[in-house]
């Protein structure tokens, strides 16, 4: 019998798991995918918003400023990529200038630090590559960029190091209500817990329905993103937003932590919870929008495109709190700014659990820090030479585009990478200009050798996401199925 079972290993579920690790409770994080962060979290825009764009009278608007403020300490403890680069909401005409003033007033009322209005002339001096027709901007220096999947991995690793259990490839098939609590039925077994936290993202309404709750629905909102070549690094120095619309912050220009520029997303509601395709129409809309803000951006610079699905609740707000089913806590509808709010959501959920009767005695042995990954490409030449002398695996380059070494791949496997995407999201192998054309086979070889699996059993992201198949033989079963190597 666990004290708490958390369903969903996205950034919110992982943040809750780590927050619970501060206390002497028996907790388990249950994730359907092969690794944490492989659902909604892997495909978001990677922005820690300042908080001035969310209505303070909403649940999301009550959590984003606090969440933003918690990221410095988190990144320091857990060594994931995070940098405060600031953001600009730009007015494309003088008619939009009052909207900037309203956003500034809203942000100041919420406690967003450093908000300032810039004239058109100041904007041109600070960001000379933006369109010179822009009428002005609102700057928010506390906004930042993050690699969200790195954050998920680090939160989960630290939670595990402090006693939280992790069950991967364990989709919840049904939930049984008992006198003692709730029982999650997963492939090959069951998990009993006094409290269940439903942080299941796109499937949170279906998980809630397993205990008879049908008071909200989730409808996916697809957002297409386009990653541009690193030759554009420095084109803009801050996050660039248009004036927001009622249901979206608009199409953005995002200087990522790793030096590429990303543009997007779109915002298209759909019924399909699996469709993450990109479209010709989506690309046209994205580039038309961003070229009005920065004419130097061109579709020919695209090196990768992807789409993510935001779990939009029928309430159009976060749904966080206890339910009519004793012990069942909803943490649903966590769309933007869910990544920003995640640390604050975790605090709130732990407070709810306390109010619902969970005894929270401080874990005096809690260790907040983990060792950060080696980032060979960011070292000085002398530092790279010294590292390669100490460990020759760091002298073997696996990914040329991002200068990723074999030593970094081994470290990633040591820290939980089990799939090709697990490596990519940890060390960036396959994220550069050639998009894995050079390094995929080598990464698969290293995974197969270290995990003692046949080469053909290595998948892109778990399940049946096979990369290759053995000639003349049957395909290996998906992990978790009978006969898996």
Which SSEs are present, and which pair or pack?
Elements: E1 2-7, H1 11-20, E2 27-30, E3 47-48, H2 64-78, E4 82-83, E5 87-91, H3 97-110, E6 116-119, H4 120-126, E7 136-140, E8 144-146, H5 148-161, E9 165-167, E10 174-177, E11 182-186, E12 189-198, H6 204-209, E13 218-228, E14 239-242, E15 252-255, E16 261-264, E17 268-269, H7 280-293, E18 302-313, E19 319-322, E20 328-332, H8 338-355, H9 381-390, E21 397-399, E22 404-405, H10 406-414, H11 420-427, H12 440-451
Parallel strand pairs: 1-2, 1-12, 2-9, 5-14, 12-20
Antiparallel strand pairs: 3-8, 4-8, 5-7, 6-7, 10-11, 11-12, 13-16, 13-17, 13-18, 15-16, 19-20, 21-22
Helix pairs in contact: 1-5, 1-8, 2-8, 10-11, 10-12
Number of domains: 3
Strand content: 15-25%
According to CATH, what is the class of the largest domain?
Alpha Beta
Discrete helix count: 12
The parts where pLDDT drops under 50 for at least 5 residues are: 480-485
Number of strands: 22
Structural class: alpha+beta
| Shape category | globular
Instruction: Work out the helicity level.
Output: 25-40%
CATH superfamily of the largest domain: FAD/NAD(P)-binding domain
Q: Provide mean pLDDT, rounded.
A: 95
CATH architecture of the largest domain: 3-Layer(bba) Sandwich
- How big is the Rg? 23 Å
Q: If you consult CATH, what is the topology of the largest domain?
A: FAD/NAD(P)-binding domain
- Report the span from N to C terminus: 31 Å
**Main sheet, how many strands, which sense, barrel?**
8 strands, mixed
């Amino acid at each position: 019998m666990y004290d708490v079972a958390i369903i969903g290993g996205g950034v919110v579920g992982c943040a809750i798991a780590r927050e619970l690790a501060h206390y002497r409770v028996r907790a388990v994080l249950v994730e359907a995918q092969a690794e944490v962060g492989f659902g909604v979290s892997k495909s978001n825009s990677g922005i820690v918003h300042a908080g001035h764009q969310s209505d303070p009278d909403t649940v999301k608007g009550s959590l984003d400023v606090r969440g933003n403020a918690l990221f410095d300490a988190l990144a320091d403890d857990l060594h994931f990529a995070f940098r405060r680069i600031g953001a600009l909401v730009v007015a494309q005409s003088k008619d939009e200038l009052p909207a900037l003033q309203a956003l500034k007033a809203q942000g100041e009322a919420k406690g967003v630090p450093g908000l300032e209005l810039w004239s058109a002339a100041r904007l041109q001096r600070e960001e000379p590559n933006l369109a010179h027709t822009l009428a002005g901007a609102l700057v928010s220096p506390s906004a930042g960029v993050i690699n969200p999947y790195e954050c998920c991995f680090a939160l989960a690793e630290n939670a595990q190091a402090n006693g939280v259990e992790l069950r991967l490839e364990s989709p919840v098939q049904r939930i049984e209500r008992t006198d003692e609590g709730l029982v999650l039925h997963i492939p090959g077994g069951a998990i009993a817990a006094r409290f269940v936290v439903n942080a299941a993202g796109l499937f949170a309404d279906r998980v809630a329905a397993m205990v008879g709750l049908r008071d909200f629905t989730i409808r996916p909102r697809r957002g297409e993103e386009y990653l541009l070549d690193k030759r554009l690094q420095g084109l803009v120095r801050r996050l660039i937003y248009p004036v927001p619309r009622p249901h979206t912050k608009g199409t953005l220009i995002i200087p990522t932590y790793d030096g590429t520029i990303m543009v997007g997303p779109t915002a298209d509601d759909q019924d399909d919870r699996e469709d993450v395709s990109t479209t010709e129409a989506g690309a046209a809309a994205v580039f038309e929008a961003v070229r009005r803000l920065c004419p130097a951006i061109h579709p020919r610079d695209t090196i990768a495109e992807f789409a993510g699905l935001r779990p939009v609740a029928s309430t159009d707000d976060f749904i966080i709190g206890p339910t009519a089913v004793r012990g069942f806590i909803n943490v649903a509808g966590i769309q933007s700014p869910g990544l920003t709010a995640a640390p604050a959501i975790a605090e709130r959920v732990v407070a709810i659990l306390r109010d619902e009767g969970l005894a929270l005695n401080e874990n005096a042995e809690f260790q907040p820090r983990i060792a950060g990954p080696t980032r060979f490409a960011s070292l000085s030449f002398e530092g790279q030479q010294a590292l390669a002398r100490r460990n020759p695996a760091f002298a073997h380059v696996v990914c040329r585009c991002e200068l990723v070494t074999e030593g970094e791949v081994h470290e990633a496997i040591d820290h939980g990478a089990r799939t090709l995407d697990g490596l990519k999201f940890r060390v960036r192998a396959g994220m550069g200009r050639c998009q894995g054309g050079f390094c995929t086979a080598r990464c698969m070889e290293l995974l197969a050798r270290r995990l003692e699996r046949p080469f053909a059993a290595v998948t892109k992201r778990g399940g049946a996401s096979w990369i290759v198949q053995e000639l003349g033989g049957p395909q290996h079963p998906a992990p978790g199925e009978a006969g898996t190597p």
